[in-house]
Specification:
homodimer, alpha+beta, 9-stranded mixed beta sheet, 5-stranded antiparallel beta sheet, binds N-(aminocarbonyl)-beta-alanine
């Protein structure tokens, strides 16, 4: 049994670092708040007597040795948040992983394999895009140079900011061999809550594509320029987005236009340029790909009709992922044995497990999200489910660590 | 005859202050660049021996005395620009006014009435909204407190910034009695250039309304939230703007969505809130009013269908304006006598003459804008037309100042 109150104390402690609007967190990757949380986390790891490593992209590992010199079982998630995001997303997974290790230490339980708890850098992708950058470096999806050179909206680079907060560690410290990876996370969607379940056994992750679409026309005066001669990118983009919504319905994909910028962004100037992002997701790759084809045609057609120039730039693609069957079975068996109400579920959100799954057997356990709200200060998960998930994680990790 | 080369030297001098991309200017109201231009302008006025005043909203006046103690003839415009705007908008009018006065001084020409050249603060409304704030204070349209309290996007107030650049003068210095006001300005539209004319005789200004529309829904995760349960303000706004475009065609009004902000503005978060401005203009008030009615219904209907909340906030209204018949006739007669090719024209853009017209007889003279481009670095007016306008202005001012 985990010490749930101890876990809760750690969670509440985290909820103060970057706190906004009472229940929210604003702890973007590599900000001062992220640094503060990292300091608290590493000090805690050291106090437990774990060996602590930081790698060259800022991932933090705390290691409990095993009885044999084997590849470790890894458990973790991320401590960064969205702007005005929630207190559970990522954080619950890291702190439950930590609690599992502390429970084993406290009870003097030895395992064959080492166990490592990890905090991955910049899972959210809110400040530096794309998301899950640092687990993506481990899997070989992104190069370190690419990650270092990504910039936030103020032009600050990942590499400089990582250095500034003092978490640019060494490449040798990266996770190399991994026996297995388990990540606990809140669902961030409404399915488990709607069906009144305790546990989600995650079988894979939806495919996701991100695009930036920039549409450029002629900047001119709002009062003097006749409508007929305008090349207005704003009106073009409104039509495009409205048509993409229809296409998303047709292809049954999830569509989000989350980021939108107009230039020069002044009431009485017809914009020169409008840029926005498209996030499209589907369980099946072919649906996502069909949507993308149709999206490109729509952008092309509308731009042509309106004599504006459009550029479509892919920011990120992550095809549909299937997690490891054996770990899924292990989670299922343990959950059933404990009498938890569970179901199999496909994750709508990306997670670090997505990239780790490319290099090692991985799977995830979901906790219900109240009303399915996430990436918002109203994000909430009941204590009961955090407790259930922690105990299930304990059993699964223990079993994996003795394999 | 004005000294055209002297005017050109002043214009070129101005074109260096806040210069961007070779041909453009970035000289937003009350910035360091605006201060620099004001310093150059006031020093020039002083060197001419004019008496210089700055009023409590930063308007700068240079006065040449008349033979009698009568209300002055006023000529001028503004020296601030849009972000990445042009070198002529406003500036040509101020510097031609200055050149008229210098020409009279140089030739020892006395007039019955005093003549004042004025630079109005923040005509553009790009940094502090609405436009033409400082001429609006003179006319009683805006209170000084209202103007002082407007804020730029970084939260800096007009009042503080005016003080910071050292141009908060005294209320007693405001223009009080005005005999007549004439403003020379570039057309900023394509009409004069298309018709190959030298001069536009401005009979009035289109009515303009500005709105800010804020649409609020539920912020949530792009990957986990089923499309059916979303309350997505971005998709609502795309539909609204697309429908407004159709309405604008129907009602024959000019429609511009120039400013657009999404919150939190992150690719994988369904926006919580989307805010945008609507600039609508028409020669006839009733057309603008009909459009606004229909716009409100559209916003209401779309928000209702999509269960999002919309708020419409009027930022500015300026009904259609008609300029003074006598001054229009004076301009027409002088233009014809000089053999200039001219036409009567309604201004699509607002100008300081719009508010001064509420308290004194006013009119304007337009110069052709190459390709109708303005509020852009590509803004250009041929020297020939600047020269014609300067000489026409000289005759008109001289005649008014002897009335
Ligand atoms: N869990 C999570 O919100 N990850 C961010 C990446 C994504 O948008 O799926
Ligand atoms: N002349 C000019 O661009 N004025 C700004 C106010 C407007 O948008 O009409």
């Amino acid at each position: 049994e985990i010490d749930f109150n101890r876990f809760l104390a750690n969670l509440n402690n985290s909820s103060e670092i970057g706190k906004v609007y009472e229940t929210g967190l604003n702890r973007l990757a590599l900000t001062d708040e992220d640094k503060k949380m990292r300091d608290v986390f590493t000090e805690y790891l050291r106090n437990l007597g774990l060996s602590v490593r930081v790698d060259d992209v800022g991932n933090i590992y705390g290691r409990k040795e095993g009885e044999e010199n084997l590849a470790p079982v890894v458990v973790g998630s991320h401590l960064d948040t969205q702007p005005n995001g929630g207190r559970y997303d990522g954080i619950a997974g890291v702190l439950l992983g930590l609690e599992v290790i502390e429970t084993l230490l406290e009870n003097g339980i030895k395992t064959k394999r080492p166990i490592e708890v990890v905090n991955f850098t910049n899972e959210e992708g809110a400040r530096f895009s794309p998301p899950m950058m640092a687990s993506g470096v481990l899997s070989g999806e992104f190069t370190r140079d690419y990650v270092y050179s990504t910039k936030d909206k103020d032009g600050l680079s990942f590499g400089d900011e990582l250095e500034r907060i003092g978490y640019k560690g060494r490449k040798e410290n990266r996770l190399a061999e991994i026996h297995s990876y388990v990540e606990a996370h809140i669902e961030q969607g409404p399915i488990l809550a709607d069906e009144n379940l305790d546990v989600g056994i995650v079988t894979g992750i939806q495919g996701t594509s991100w695009f930036e679409i920039a549409v450029e026309g002629d900047s001119n005066h709002a009062g003097t320029t006749p409508m007929e001669v305008r090349r207005d990118p704003m009106l073009a983009v409104a039509e495009i987005i409205h048509r993409l919504e229809g296409l998303a319905k047709e292809k049954a994909v999830k569509l989000t236009i989350g980021k939108f910028l107009a230039e020069p962004n002044v009431p009485n100037v017809i914009p020169k340029k409008v840029k926005y992002t498209v996030d499209v997701r589907a369980d099946e790759n072919y649906l996502r790909e069909e949507f993308i084809e149709a999206m490109k045609e729509t952008v092309e057609a509308v731009s042509h009709d309106r004599a504006v120039n459009a550029e479509i730039h892919e920011l990120w693609e992550s095809p549909t992922v299937k997690f490891d069957e054996e770990i899924i079975k292990l989670i299922t068996d343990n959950s059933n044995a404990s009498g938890y109400k569970s179901r199999k579920i496909i994750s709508g959100a990306g997670h670090d497990a997505r990239y780790i799954n490319d290099i090692a057997p991985a799977a995830m356990i979901f906790m219900p999200s109240e009303a399915g709200i996430s990436h918002d200060i109203k994000e909430h998960t009941e204590e009961k489910y955090l407790n259930i998930c922690g105990n299930l994680l304990l059993k699964v990790i223990l079993e994996l660590a003795n394999k």
